[in-house]
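User: Fold this; tokens only.

Assistant: Input:
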Amino acid sequence: MMLKPQQMSRVIITGPKNLQEQVVKELHSLKILHIADHSRNEMADIGTPLESADRLSQALVKIRSLMSALGIKKNGNGLEHRKGLPEIEMASRKLSEQLNTNLDESKKIDDKVSKLNAAAQELEILKSLNLPPEALDSYKSLASFTGYVRDKTSVESIRAELIRITDKFMLLSGDVSGKTFIGLFADEKEKHNALDILSKKGFSAFNFSNAQGMKGGAVANIQKTETEIKKLQKAKLDINEGVERLRETYKGFLLSADSYLEEQLEKAEAPLKFAATSSSFLIKGWIPENQLKASIDRLNMAARNKIYVHFEPAKKNDKVPVKLKNPKMVEPFEFFMGLYSMPSYRELDPTFFIFLSFPIFFGMMLGDVGYGVLSLMLFWAIKKKMPSAKSLLNVLMISSFISVLFGFFFGEFFGYEFMHPVISREHDMFSLMYLAIGFGIVHVNLGLIIGMVNEWKSHGMMHAVYAKLSWIILEIGVALLALPYLKIITLSPLIGAIFLGLSILMLLKGEGVKGVIELPSIFTNILSYARLMAIGLSSVILAVIINDSARDFFHEGGFLIIAGVLILIVGHGINIMLGLLGSFLHSLRLHYVEFFSKFFQGGAKRYQPFGLKE
């Protein structure tokens, strides 16, 4: 039955240690057992990995390091690897040596290019001063200073102060990237005085460490440096091409080796989840009931009937992993359970109810033939490009189709009423609100009925009646009080009061004082469904404004027609995006908050069989 998760059986497998590896391999091949981790106790310790685990782990780290260095990403299409661990180790060692040689050469070139670029910058400064690099050499009788000062006026000020203390100096200046650069050569005896003068003018020293030692003029050295950089860049390009060849040559090997090692390591580390003694192992887990017999037969065959397999149905308090079981049409809506929480094993699976109501809520809010068709085409195109998101996109495609149907119901096409509507969202707001509240009443009470079934299964019929049916009786009581007051029906208010009082007593019995305190919540939950009207109304009003604005431009004629077309395209584009986002988020909220709060506990683990990759 689709409203229930897949039935599970608790399984215990035990046998001698010498058969552990064979059993692990068979379980991995079966891809059927959800392993329950063993916790260390007095009876048995946690198992130890298989002997190959360390080598496999090291090899996997090596392979992934090579993949990272070569820019190879896992794509989910792991190729079958036909060789074993020794061959992988040998091939990865060879690739690592080739790659490291290339990367080392590449790093050396980068260092040289970096140094030459720095030298070229220094030579440009010397060029602006008309100084050869040899001028930077050390002198016994001369002190030299090179660096930046505040501005050009500082140069003349420095010159004037130097003249007062010595006539043995040479001061050069030039413009470097909008800043004033100077070169000062003065008598060694006046070194400290010259430095004091420079300090007062905001002097910032510059070191020509890369250009120092070069022979010839600055211009010639610049040309020589640029030529050398080009040669190095060509060599770097050749190395990069070599690395790309390695990437293409070894890509298939690395992807298949990664997949193979990951699988083998999973097997080797599986005993860490088992219980173990010095001579035996014990595995606890869960297998779907309908696959139990075939799985046990294969395990016994693999172990030559030398293991013992015990199985039993899930008990009331067992923490059973959940595998949802829904028809193909409903399966995409399991996405919402994964996003929120898996239902517990004994709860009803709400996926089918989301399948029924989510597209309706989404469609009512978007509710436009044009918007629905465009969004359907958009999600179809994205699905072709992103198959990994197909569950969500299938949900959105179904919801977009329902939006088209609601578009005919409302008679809307890009905000225009192109046909006589059943309900006009623009002109019949109250009918739209009554429809939204009607959906809310049905949806909330459906949640209460599901909650009653869950409580019946968990705590018995009477608790279900007190905890959940009481809310429905409360609603009936309020309705029987309100309808006569509004003169819709003729009925004594006493009947409504009796229903109301009875519901409060039942709530006290079923949920205690907490239930009574939360009495107003049922009505606020129902009123929350008015957002189905509000979101849709805001979308259609914005669409009408866009259309009216564009029409005004069309009436003006000329180039303004182009402006009108742009308003339609951009305006409706934005409105569709807002409509899709609002419809999705608010539909989600109505399920997670208003609907799920009436019955859903959740918290179960998803069924994850050993050996199965999602």
